[in-house]
From TrEMBL:
It catalyses: uridine(34) in tRNA + AH2 + O2 = 5-hydroxyuridine(34) in tRNA + A + H2O. GO terms for molecular function: oxidoreductase activity, acting on paired donors, with incorporation or reduction of molecular oxygen. InterPro entries: Rhodanese-like_dom, Rhodanese-like_dom_sf, TrhO, TRHO_N. The lineage of its organism: Bacteria, Bacillati, Cyanobacteriota, Cyanophyceae, Chroococcidiopsidales. Its EC number is 1.14.-.-. This is tRNA uridine(34) hydroxylase. Belongs to the TrhO family.
């Protein structure tokens, strides 16, 4: 059954987020909407799926009944099968975790760049282009000229900036991420550190892949997504990767040929850190039929 997928976020003051949670969850369950929505005092962040566009539109009309969320924007894509098994609405400290108060998009944020203007920005030799995503995401696709901070979680990004970038030397910086949310905090942090010209891709990679024609695209590879599609390509069509059920990282056909790959147990990314205890847990999950969907709970929080 074809599913309509919506991704969205907004940084907005929601001091009553705990009171919003139950009515929102009840509405989603009543409409058959599945996925994960994160609520925090700083805003909302989610990826959800439903059987029709009308159900998605109805959910955003429900959210929009709160004036603070009336202009909530969302990006749509499609999948041939349901990408989520259940609906979760979680309360968090941050809707995307960086762990430092200086990164506050409600106070300051970088300059948004529309997808149609992005090529010109990242082709400028004076611009430092940075992929703010984690290493396992970057390895399957990124923009030309982009630096890979080689982070394992977004919390490590500020330290990367402190060690590798200098506001006196790097005058222009352009950043991107999957849907745009990490760049909101990354750009806010960099401005707080004295960087003057900080740009970020509006709507993230997903919006770029949706709107920029393939013949003009400077994207190379595929884009990791936090649902059962695993990765998408130009035009947001499903990609060619599977998911390691142990660590949640994307697997290519070459990865699956590695001696470190064991279906449901390990892959080249996690084999060296696999303990006997975790091996036993994964084997038990396989018996119980618990698949990679359980790893999605890590996705929006990374």
């Amino acid at each position: 059954m074809t599913q309509v997928i919506a991704t969205f976020y907004k940084f907005v003051s929601l001091p009553d987020c705990a009171e919003i949670r139950e009515p929102l969850l009840s509405y989603c369950l009543s409409q058959g909407v599945k996925g994960t929505i994160l609520l925090a005092e700083e805003g909302i962040n989610g990826t959800i799926a439903a059987a029709s566009r009308s159900l998605i539109d109805s959910l955003f009309a429900f959210l929009g009944s709160d004036p603070r969320l009336a202009d909530l924007e969302y990006k749509l894509s499609r999948a041939e099968a349901p990408p989520f098994e259940r609906m979760k609405v979680k309360l968090k400290r941050e809707i995307v975790t960086i762990g430092i108060p200086e990164a506050d998009p409600s106070q300051q944020v970088g300059t948004y760049v529309n997808p149609q203007d992005w090529n010109a920005i990242i082709s400028d030799p004076e611009v430092v282009v940075i992929d703010t995503r984690n290493d396992y995401e970057v390895k399957i696709g990124s923009f030309q000229r982009a630096q890979n901070p080689q982070t394992q979680s977004f919390r490590q990004f500020p330290e990367y900036v402190r060690q590798h970038l200098n506001p006196d030397q790097h005058k222009k910086v352009a950043m991107f991420c999957t849907g745009g949310i990490r760049c909101e905090k990354a750009s806010s942090f960099m401005l707080s550190q004295g960087f003057q010209e900080v740009y970020h891709l509006k709507g993230g990679i997903l919006k770029y892949l949706e709107e920029v024609p393939s013949e003009e695209s400077l994207w190379q590879g595929e884009c990791f997504v936090f649902d059962e599609r695993v990765a998408v390509q130009q035009g947001l069509v499903p990609g060619n990767y599977e998911m390691c059920r142990s660590c949640g990282h994307p697997l290519s056909e070459l990865d699956k040929q590695s001696e470190k790959y064991e279906e449901g147990i390990s892959c080249p990314d996690c084999f060296d850190t696999l303990t006997e205890e975790k091996r036993s847990r994964q084997q038990e999950k396989l018996k119980q039929g618990v698949g990679s969907r359980e790893l999605r709970k890590q996705g929006q929080e990374r």
